[in-house]
Amino acid sequence: MTGTGVGPELIRLNGVNASYDHHLVLEDVSFHVHEDQFTGIVGPSGAGKTTLLKLLLQTLDPVAGTVWRAPDLRVGYVPQLESVNWNFPITVFECVLMSRKSSRIRPWANASEKASVSAVLDRLGIGDLGERHIRELSGGQQQRMFWPERSCGNHKYFFWMSQPVAWTSQRVTIFCIY
After folding, report:
1. Alpha-carbon distance 136 to 67, whole Å?
2. pLDDT of residue 65
3. 153: left (phi over 0), alpha (psi -120 to 50) or beta
4. Closest by CA position to 120, among listed 97, 143, 104, 90
5. What CATH number should be reported for the domain whose range is 1-73+156-178?
6. For residue 95, what pLDDT is reported?
7. What is the pLDDT of residue 89?
8. Distances (CA, A) of 145 to 72, 83, 116, 149
9. Domain segments of the chain: what residues?
10. Calpha distance 134→118 (Å, rounded)
């Protein structure tokens, strides 16, 4: 974990237990993450990293303890690349465009939204790949396409990425606070 830990608290777990079919997979987990921290969790398959994600995304309720997220916190998730249907007929630009949050009723992007997506693609270093099909990207380019930084705006982010990394056969779970 890096950072001073003096920024506003964004996530807190207190004494959390989680289970599937009455089989306890996480027991008495407590931690907190502040706005200026970068945290990584390393563990083998089955250690509970994805269960922790589900708790933080509020798609799984703890059987004991509490999970708290700052009310204005936006959560981004980069999926494991093998879980994406890379044959889905969509370009990089269209994929990033789908991440926009719009109060408009019509699904079509306006010129401002398109310009914002182009700027984000440039910031991610994949601006020249916008018209490519998503399966035509390298693994690193695919991951950058899913980074929550792509959503346009100044919001606090909790970002979760669960991927194998080159230097280990274990999965690494990384929390990034924007």
Report:
1. 39
2. 97
3. left
4. 97
5. 3.40.50.300
6. 86
7. 92
8. 24, 15, 14, 9
9. 1-73+156-178, 81-152
10. 16
d(CA 149, CA 58): 21
Tokens of 59: 């798609």
What type of residue is 57? L
Q: What DSSP element (H or E) covers 139?
A: helix 139-146
Series of mean pLDDT values for 10-residue runs along the chain (178 residues)? 66 93 92 78 77 85 94 69 80 83 71 87 86 87 68 49 45 43
DSSP strands (E only) in the chain: 9-20, 23-34, 38-43, 64-69, 74-78, 157-164, 171-177
Query: What is d(CA 159, CA 157) in angstroms, rounded to the nearest whole number?
Result: 6
Token couple for 69 = 């997220």
The answer to whether 18 touches 63, Cβ cutoff 8 Å, is yes
Q: Which residue, chain included where needed, has tokens 């994406």?
A: 84
Question: What pLDDT, on the 0 to 100 scale, is given for residue 163?
Answer: 54
Q: What is the pLDDT of residue 37?
A: 72
- The tally of CA atoms less than 13 A away on the side-chain side of residue 46 is 1
